[in-house]
Amino acid sequence: VSTVSWSDPQFLGSWHTLDVQIGETDEGNFFAMQFARPFRHIEDPVSYGVDTDHSRNDFERYREGDTVVQVPIERHALHLFGAVGSGSRVERTAVGLDTRMWRHDYGTPDGSAVASERVPGDTTAFEFGPYATFDYRPRFLTVTRLDTLDYRQDIGLGAGAYGRLAARYRDEEGAGAQLQPLIDVRLRTAAE
Questions:
Q1: Whole-angstrom Cα distance, residue 28 to residue 54?
Q2: Residue 118 DSSP one-character state
Q3: Exposure pattern of 21-37 as b/e (b: 16+ CB <10 Å)?
Q4: 30 and 55 in contact (C-beta within 8 Å)?
Q5: What is the three-class DSSP state of 46?
Q6: Separation of alpha carbons 189 and 192, rounded Å
Q7: CA distances from 131 to 63, 84, 94, 101, 166 (A)
Q8: Which residues neighbour 90 within 8 Å (Cβ) at sequence distance 6 or greater?
Q9: What pLDDT is recorded for position 65?
Q10: Strand pairing partners for 102?
Q11: pLDDT for 90-114, tens place per residue?
């Protein structure tokens, strides 16, 4: 396994970030890149970005410790998002739009149990919809030496929620196309 990564938290002196990763494993290679303008402080009004991911690897099915089926898969993904935030340090909301596109291309399977393995058809999907976050941080805890560096960090104590509604159009070769609803809800808390 070999990987080269580059990360710039202030790309060209701006509030944008750029992360690039390229590598190779025994099964294939991969490339990932993210360019974004995250919320840089608690009262920052705008965030947006794009990330992409491309990889090739082998899906393997095992039986009694031996590989019985091996299917090469190429994956390509693109994600775009944008959000506006509002509120105070204590109560903060953000509302945005999220678009995701991906494609999985399946190669010819190989192995002793090929006849019993159903390989999906090449699949393309597109997701689009709004998302929202809410953070309630009534208290901040200042911690020193949380990691190996000697930084002081403020950790927000409180609760938060994330919700995303989307419509997913999924088209699998040989199986047809479907329109699917998507609901993603996450809750989090942090306490001392």
A1: 11
A2: P
A3: eeeeeebeebebebbbb
A4: yes
A5: strand
A6: 10
A7: 42, 11, 8, 16, 8
A8: 136, 137, 138
A9: 84
A10: 77, 125
A11: 899 999 999 999 999 998 888 888 8
